[in-house]
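Note on ligand handling. Small-molecule inputs were canonicalized before submission; formal charges were left as drawn, and no protonation-state enumeration was performed. Where a ligand contained multiple stereocentres, the stereochemistry in the source SMILES was retained. For magnesium ion, this procedure yielded the string shown in the input block below.
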Amino acid sequence: MRVALVYNQKKEDATQQQVPEDATEPPSLGEDCSPALATRFLQFPSPQTLNDLYAEWDTAETIDAVAAALGQIHRVNLVEADEEAYEKLALNRPDIVFNVAEGMHGASREAQIPSMLELLQIPYTGSDPLTLALCLDKSRAKEILAYHHIPTPRFCVISEKSLVSASRLRDGGVRFPVVVKPLHEGSSKGIFNSSLVRDVAELRRQVSMLHSIYEEPVIVEEYLCGREFTVAMLGNGDSATVLPIVEINFDSLPAGVNPIYSYEAKWIWDRPDAPLDIFECPARIPLPLQRAIGRVCRKAYTVLRCRDWCRLDVRLDAMGVPHVLELNPLPGILPDPKDNSCFPKAARAAGLSYDRLIQSVLDLAANRCGLADRKPAFHPAR
Ligand SMILES: Nc1ncnc2c1ncn2[C@@H]1O[C@H](COP(=O)(O)OP(=O)(O)OP(=O)(O)O)[C@@H](O)[C@H]1O
Ligand SMILES: [Mg+2]
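Structure output:
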């Protein structure tokens, strides 16, 4: 088939994010990330931690790796998801698009390329614009989960600092401690060590900081203190499969920091030359818990109408009940096993190489759209 790989590529000098005027100068983290220094550093987000404008976008290495995997079987054309994307796709008219474009502007940015493709009637991998937009807005996704009785932390949305009050939280049934996050970002953007807050004063500070950086509402979510997992799913309908579950190992974080998979944990401390031992896959959990997590993920995948693939973040509450934190229907797929990337890691644990994972996603989409006579490279075993 003629496959177009549609992507947004990370800029190398991505330092344009605005820093709040009252941001205190942080200690320099430098090359050496000792726990004591890290703890001090994490008392406030810093210009370094705010270097995140393009955090969701893919590196040249990832784009090349996806193109190479597809190129083993198909004719591949690369299309950057920029302002000319529509014209390029209309002219090129591929048989199918492999979509990894995260988009640039607005709360519906992930839906933009799929919307263009629907208009052009070009099939593509992954979820449709509605699902992508719903999942990027954490509150909308959680409203749907809650409607379907899928456990998810209680929350409220705050669009202005002046609206922060204890009674507002109480009205939403939300109790401290809480996690404060931008409403529609990913890749832990805006989620710092300081995002876990315990009182109204801290909440006000965090909300104000996020509003000034991201200029979007924040979601305030009850903190779940249990173990955390991330779950890769592949497939459609009844044959959608849960890959081996990944556990987030908070013990690998510097001493004294909060047990959350923050921006610092994801992008600053965890480097190929000094990797954190952050993932355990397959997670060492008893079968009943494994089944409970699988059930809740399948249900969330179904009610949000995910297609082909998705990564779901799950955390246990104090009673050990799995809750869905969020769904990522455009999951991160760093190719180098040394980079900690959950989806490829879970696929490898299922015996699926990076190349076969990418080829499988394409096959799943092609089959779903009635395009392929090829069987998916991955044969789901439930
Ligand atoms: N309600 C919560 N209770 C406990 N921990 C939470 C909660 N919300 C977020 N976290 C922590 O913060 C991390 C990042 O949050 P979340 O997954 O919502 O952000 P994201 O930026 O969309 O992540 P991703 O990188 O997966 O796109 C979680 O993996 C978890 O460790
Ligand atoms: Mg997440």
